[in-house]
UniProtKB/TrEMBL annotation:
It comes from Elysia marginata. This is Tubulin polyglutamylase complex subunit 2. InterPro entries: TPGS2.
Amino acid sequence: MDGLKTRNYLEKMTMCIVSFLDLEKKSGVCQVKNDVKAPAERAAILMWEQKHSLLMPEDLKNFFMTSNGFHLTWSVKMENSTIPVGAMHLNSIGQMLRLENGSSEGTHVQPSLWDLDLDNEINGRKAPSFVDSRVFELDPCDGNGKVCLVYSEVQQESDSGSDEENGFLLPRGMVLCRYIYIYPERTEIKVAFLDLLS
């Protein structure tokens, strides 16, 4: 894919946030930066799948074949200062690392990943556990939590695992919340959350 086709495709994938919403023309919005990345090599995706003995979801794989990660930021101008307010991010395939169990000891400030195992259900279903699931970081959320791709062992054993159950938000409070990882839907959630549609 040449540069222009890639840029056009990325605009579609990101719902044309910069141009369609006229982000740069919104009152007070400044320093809009859309970091366009080269596509990931097919070999890098295959290596990730082989290393972890997992199949990457098709939509995520297709996105990586278009852009190896995504980063869009913007700021607002208030009086004499510029304040960064918006950020949309998706790790590159090399940064999509497995979150390990880590220490079993946590504090009230920094809970342990094992604390997640105390929560038994999310929306009436068994919550993913760091003991019987594999969790990968999609977005570090600037230290305010993590958007994760979760593979549960039960899903791997069944023939018809549901992809929509794979995305979770891990806030700093360590309570795992169901989240949609599918890229276009995830972008829509962020746009609504950041109130860009008004």
